[in-house]
Amino acid sequence: MQQVSTPSQTSLPLVKTHTRLAWVGQLFFIVLGLAVVYILGKNLISNPTLFANIFISGLQLGFVYAMIALGYTMVYGIVKLINFAHGDVFMVGAFVSYFAVTRFNLHQWPLAVFPAIPPMVGVVIGSISVIILSMLICIMLAVTIERVAYKPLRDAPRIAALITAIGVSFFLEYFGALNFVFSPRFIPYERPFEVVAWYIKGGIHQVVPGTQPPDGSITFSNILLIIMLASVLVQIFLQFLVKRTKIGVAMRAASYDKQAARLMGIDVDSVISFTFAIGAAFAGLGGVLYAIAYSSIWSQLGILPGLKAFVAAVLGGIGSIPGAFVGALIMGQAESMTMGYISTPMRDAVAFTILIIVLLIRPTGIFGEPEKEKA
Amino acid sequence: MRSLKVLSLFVILSMILVACGGTGSTGGAKELKVAILAPLSGPVPTFGVSTRDGALLAIEEWNAKGGVNGYTIVPIVEDSQCTPEPAVNAMNKVVDQDGVKFVIGEVCSKATIPISEIGTEKKVIVISGTSTAEAVTVDANGNTKPYTFRACFIDAFQGLVGAKFATEKLGAKTTFIMLDQANDYVKGLAEEFEKNFTAMGGTVVGKESYTAKDTDFSTILAKIAEAKPDVVYLPDYYNIVNLVTKQAKEKGITSAFLGGDGWDSADLDVVAAAGGYFTNHYSPDDPRPEVVNFLAAYGAKYKNDDGTAKVPDALATLAYDAANMLFTAMTTAGTVEDVDKVKTALEGIKINAVSGAITLDAKHNPVKAAAILAVTAEGVKFEASIAP
């Protein structure tokens, strides 16, 4: 989907002040950028394996953010709504998989029904079923939210829908915190499959549980590979969907001009519902993978990853699908490098500083078309 | 759950009836009124029920032995909700209306602190089982509050015991400290651990902080894998411990994790945390006769919903100890009327309590052994008892 261009309505007369400030600002950001490059470079040279390990954990985080950021960017591209409830749909996805695995043993159905198939195949099919169930329930939830909370406000000012989105978000967080829903506690998450870790040192070796890999080895796990694979597949699927299919064309048309699209016979309402559904499906997928990766869930799980994915979407250029992907990877690295080389509590500060910097120097983001978005 | 609520309500009502009946009938044995302030509702009702049950068991045992100095103990149970305002109301009620001079409770430090101020003002002895904040027994000027005592050790003490266990029993030379800077409890334990571990000849090879909402600890764990410390000190609550230890196991980190009583929860992921240790007030597996007898008496009096004997938690134990401290001091003082004599006897108390042999320091904080519990994949087991 392309960045939407709307004709600018007002032109700012303050050109002179703007330019002077821009000079000071640019100098500041150049110095900041050089400092970041210097610190990272120094650490890369002094301890390359630690750098690689930190990079890998950033990669894992980045690919998860990418899946969430897609939902933000697609919905924004079409209805110009920042769907703050998106992070909470992500949380619901994690919980659905938790219930499916611990309460209903859904991940074991292939082996229970067909005991003859190899266990590996059974685990893969079982895990995929869990993911699909989570995605379906997230789709239903998101479509319901869209119908109940956003559709009645489609012609209202954009701020009304934004505030409603925040309301829906709080509703999901605190409804989920009720004891008979998800409870306010942190719940240990039981994975549908075992974690296998490897380390790289003169070749790739499997980590034997209970033993420490040798010094100077880079470790990664099957979870990282699964997250990367899922995230890349989602990207390819979306590119195909938006560029090559009829519904993709309809989405682009609705994004460009809803009225004209409607006149052309496009059912804009169902296109919007479809967009919410796709975004929610990927949020559900991301939620399951996030829970599998970090193995503890609670009702406010979605807030911070949701906000960071939103920053990623803005950084990449909100409305742009490849932008969301690239932005998310940058966010993952920014967070991971902050945790590694500054301090862990600083990471949220850095994430939101990035948001401020992007809004200051390039509000349309990396992939956005500059200066066409009205304020 | 519902039947438990109804049952506990019934117990409370019957306690109140017993208390009222006691005050109504004069003559016969002389009566000593003792108030139990416990959070029976509010955020931590299970803490309140345990505290009440522990204290009531002690009172029952003393009455069976003929009471204290010939007086029959009459308990007055009030719900203080772990919140300052209801706690103050309950305190005023028992002191002004019932004429109570001895109070066992509250559980939460934030409720015990205002109660203790009323106690200081009105000369009422307050003994808390489980309020661990330093300000419970010490006022803003650093003076010990004369009539306030507690049965538990304070937060910082666990850091000391943890360091002692790490260096002496585990033979640790290096440590890596993980802490949540925003949590006073965690920070207090971590600082005290660092101070004592260094003083005992150990080296802190790294110190990293995180926030309570973090779920991804991979970068901190990457640093731990680099530093290879003998122990990792993680004095946080079980939810963080579950995450960190699970992710550490997956990275192949073999350093032992060590923590405080925040690990003490049914929700602790024992498979992930296996191989770790934590300091706690008491362990039901401790073979000392005080513990064995207490377990038997508690289990005989209180049952779970399915009819099995209840195992007392740290809250029940410390409330039981607090009540025993009070009655032992009264016996030593030879009075239940003169609050100042009882106070002096409490200050010099020596008692073999369930949670360890207790004496009090100048700040009315117990000096006693802490239990070290080992986490195994099968569950939490008693490892050692470490005296300060």
Can you characterise this structure?
The complex is a heterodimer of chains A (375) and B (388). Chain A has 375 residues and is mostly helical. Chain A has a single domain (21-361), classed as Orthogonal Bundle (ABC transporter involved in vitamin B12 uptake, BtuC). Helices cover 68% and strands 4% of the residues of chain A. Chain A contains 13 helices and 5 strands. A 3-stranded antiparallel β-sheet of chain A has the order 3-2-4. A two-stranded antiparallel ribbon of chain A has the order 1-5. In chain A, strand 2 and strand 3 form a beta hairpin. In chain A, helix 2 (48-79) runs antiparallel to helix 12, helix 5 (119-150) packs across helix 10 and helix 7 (222-244) packs antiparallel against helix 10. The two termini of chain A are 21 Å apart. Chain B contains 12 helices and 15 strands. A 7-stranded mixed β-sheet of chain B has the order 7-6-8-9-10-14-15, with helices on both faces. A 5-stranded parallel β-sheet of chain B has the order 2-1-3-4-5, with helices on both faces. A 3-stranded antiparallel β-sheet of chain B has the order 11-12-13, covered by helices on one side. In chain B, helix 8 links the parallel strand 8 (231-233) and strand 9 (256-259). In chain B, helix 3 runs parallel beside helix 4 (109-122) and helix 11 (314-333) crosses helix 12 (339-347). Chain B is globular and about 70 Å long. Chain B starts with a helix and ends with a strand. Classes of the chains: A mainly alpha (375), B alpha/beta (388). Chains A and B meet through helix 2, helix 10 and helix 12 of A and strand 7, helix 7 and helix 8 of B.
Characterize this entry briefly:
The complex is a heterodimer of chains A (375) and B (388). By secondary structure, chain A is mostly helical. Helices cover 68% and strands 4% of the residues of chain A.
Protein traits:
heterodimer; A: mainly alpha; three-stranded antiparallel β-sheet; disordered C terminus; B: alpha/beta; Rossmann fold; 2 domains
